[in-house]
C-alpha cells in the first residue's frame, strides 16, 4: 500500500525549485524535509499556487503546466507547506492507518522509519480500496 518512492524537497528550496520538482516528479504533492530527511510538512500543487502573491498565482499555474517560467517570488518550500504532517510507522496496520486518515480528514500520510525519516507515502484512496 505504501508508495516507497516519494518526492521530497528541502525546506529552504525556492519556489522555482518547488515547481521544477513537481514537474520532474509528475506529482501533485511534495514532502518538505529537513537536512536529515525528516518530514516537516507537505506542499500540494494548490499550495504552490495559493500561497504566493495574488499577482503571481496565474504565473505559477502556467509554470506548473510547463508553459512559462516561474514568477520571481522570494518564497521557500517551508513557507508554502502545510505544517501538520500525519505520519505512521511501517508496522501501522491498514485499519489503523485508514481510521487515522479518515478521522483527521487527510488525503495522505507519510510513513517514517525509527529515526523519523520519510520512507513512503500512503494515499487515502488506495488505502480505502485495500481495506
Supply database-style keywords.
131 residues; alpha/beta; CBS-domain; 3-stranded mixed β-sheet; 6 strands; 21% strand
Give an overview of the whole structure.
The chain has 131 residues and is α/β, with parallel strands linked by helices. It has a single domain, classed as CBS-domain. The chain is 37% helix and 21% strand. The protein has six helices and six strands, in the order βαββαααβαββα. α1 links the parallel β1 (8-10) and β2 (29-33). α5 packs across α6 (124-130). The chain starts with 7 loop residues before the first strand and ends with a helix. The model has no long low-confidence stretch (mean pLDDT 91).
| CATH architecture descriptor name | Roll
CATH-level-4 superfamily name: CBS-domain
The arrangement of helices and strands along the chain is EHEEHHHEHEEH
Kindly provide the radius of gyration, computed on alpha-carbon positions and rounded to a whole number of angstroms.
15 Å
Shape: elongated
Distance between the termini: 10 Å
- What's the number of structural domains? 1
Briefly say what this structure is:
With 131 residues, this protein is an alpha/beta fold. The protein is built from six helices and six strands, in the order βαββαααβαββα. The chain has one domain (8-130): Roll (CBS-domain).
Layout of strands and helices, then pairs:
Blueprint: E1 8-10, H1 15-25, E2 29-33, E3 39-44, H2 45-50, H3 54-64, H4 77-80, E4 87-88, H5 94-103, E5 108-112, E6 118-123, H6 124-130
Parallel strand pairs: 1-2, 4-5
Antiparallel strand pairs: 2-3, 5-6
Helix pairs in contact: 5-6
